[in-house]
Amino acid sequence: MTTADAALFLRVAVDAALAGAQVAKGYFSAHGAEAAGVRIENKSRNDLVSIADRESEAAIIATIRAEFPDHLIVAEESGLIGAHHEVSWIIDPLDGTTNFLQGLPIWCVSVACVAGDDLLAGVVFDPMSNDLFAAARGLGATRNGEEIFVSTKSRLDDAFLATGFPFRANAALDVFLDAFRSIFPEVRGIRRCGAAALDLAHVAAGVYDAFFEFRLSPWDVAAGALIVREAGGVVSDLDGGTDYLSSGNIVAGTPGIQLKLLGLLRKVASQGLLDELVPLD
């Protein structure tokens, strides 16, 4: 794929994310979804979905299909759509659904375009702050059109981190708590906001210096991972490899801090250990 291809995919990803966000935002209420009459369903324990997720996803898919009717789409709510194709789209129509449904304005829409395992374009849009984070392979990363870079920090004791609880992987909770316990005294602060794609975008913009989480889904990390990489950051799995899309174990940050954070994590966690505790489907 050429740089021109990546730029085209990015344009469509931006249009799709904006279309989905417009729909989802129409359902958001600071008083919470139930007070606003939005129906909530349980996909599994603590994993919720609503009409906002479904209609946002439909708008995103329609936008992509209008440009690329034969591309494969991997969507959180709809699963695989279309036949196998060299290019596919990985969609999270509403990352941070629990926040959204509670009336907490920390959520986003995430759209990524990939060829195999090669990330080509990614967009994370925060409708509540109107922040659009975007990247295309080889073209850098932007926030509202302005180029962004990861922070210049390299000292762990000065690092401001983000993480997320492995709520879909309870068997990994003890490992996560061991990791948190080893990292917490070594850094300046750790936050858990509940929207992984947005956390990664904030790493790219230098708000956070690093992010780690276990057993996420591809749509949680695909767009954000590319944005971090194009902003000069490093992204890996728990073994320092590139298997974060399929494993869902991700460590992202500035080059110096990501390496130090990975060193702490590897004392208590690994790809193999997570596979034993929480086998992939």
Could you explain how this protein is built, in words?
The structure is a single chain. The chain is α+β, with helices and mostly antiparallel strands and 281 residues long. The protein contains nine helices and 15 strands. Strand 6 and strand 7 (118-126) form a beta hairpin. The two termini are 30 Å apart. The mean pLDDT is 92.
Pick out its properties:
eight-stranded mixed β-sheet, alpha+beta, 25% strand, globular, 281 residues, five-stranded mixed β-sheet, single chain, 9 helices
What does the average pLDDT come to? Answer: 92
Helix content: 25-40%
Terminal CA distance: 30 Å
**Overall 3D geometry?**
globular
The major beta sheet can be summarized as: 8 strands, mixed
Number of strands: 15
Uncertain segments: none
Strand order of the largest sheet: 4-3-5-6-7-8-9-10
List the helices and strands in order: HEEHEEEHEEEEEEHEHEHEHEHH
Instruction: Specify Rg, calculated over alpha carbons.
Output: 18 Å
Continuous helix count: 9
- In what range is the share of β-strand residues? 25-35%
Structural classification: alpha+beta
Summarize the structure.
The chain has 281 residues and is of the alpha+beta class. The protein contains 9 helices and 15 strands.
Compile the SSE list and pairings.
Elements: H1 3-25, E1 40-44, E2 47-50, H2 51-67, E3 72-75, E4 79-81, E5 87-95, H3 97-102, E6 108-115, E7 118-126, E8 131-136, E9 141-143, E10 146-147, E11 160-163, H4 173-183, E12 189-191, H5 196-204, E13 210-213, H6 218-230, E14 234-236, H7 244-247, E15 250-253, H8 255-265, H9 271-277
Parallel strand pairs: 3-5, 11-12, 11-13
Antiparallel strand pairs: 1-2, 3-4, 5-6, 6-7, 7-8, 8-9, 9-10, 13-15, 14-15
